[in-house]
Amino acid sequence: MKEFFINILQLVGLAWWVEIQTDQPQCTYYFGPFLSQKEARSAQVGYIEDIESEGAQGIRAQVGRYKPSQLTIFDEATEFPKSSPKPAFSGQM
């Protein structure tokens, strides 16, 4: 039932996501979707730890209502991440 609600929220652009941007490599990652802001904030810590363990620098994170068309966006002028963190899906996009 939870996934059903998440899918509806995602469809109308009201699902919660964790957006993480890094300076090195220059990437933007989206993790989600989540049913609530609280749920996304709870998961955010783990995603930041995963990205830090990959050696990323200049990490900024925020939780918001997004409707990303891509889960990982990277600046092609920088090196592509050797192993990207695995996005968590609570439902389908």
Write the topology of this structure.
Blueprint: H1 2-11, E1 16-22, E2 27-34, H2 37-53, E3 60-65, E4 72-74
Antiparallel strand pairs: 1-2, 1-3, 2-4
Q: Give the helix/strand class.
A: alpha+beta
Oligomeric state of shown chains? single chain
Largest sheet: 4 strands, antiparallel
- Radius of gyration, taken over Cα atoms and rounded to an integer in Å: 13 Å
How much of the sequence lies in strands comes to: 25-35%
Q: How many distinct beta strands?
A: 4
Strand order of the largest sheet: 3-1-2-4
Globally, the shape reads globular
Fraction of residues in helices? 25-40%
How confident overall, as mean pLDDT? 86
Give the SSE order as H and E letters.
HEEHEE
**Contiguous uncertain segments of 5+ residues:** none
First and last CA, distance: 16 Å
Q: How many distinct helices?
A: 2
Describe the protein in words.
The chain is an alpha+beta fold and 93 residues long. Helices cover 29% and strands 26% of the residues. The chain is built from 2 helices and 4 strands. The protein has helices spanning 2-11, 37-53, and strands spanning 16-22, 27-34, 60-65, 72-74. A 4-stranded antiparallel sheet has the order 3-1-2-4. Strand 1 and strand 2 (27-34) form a beta hairpin. The chain starts with a helix and ends in a 19-residue tail after the last strand. The model has no long low-confidence stretch (mean pLDDT 86).
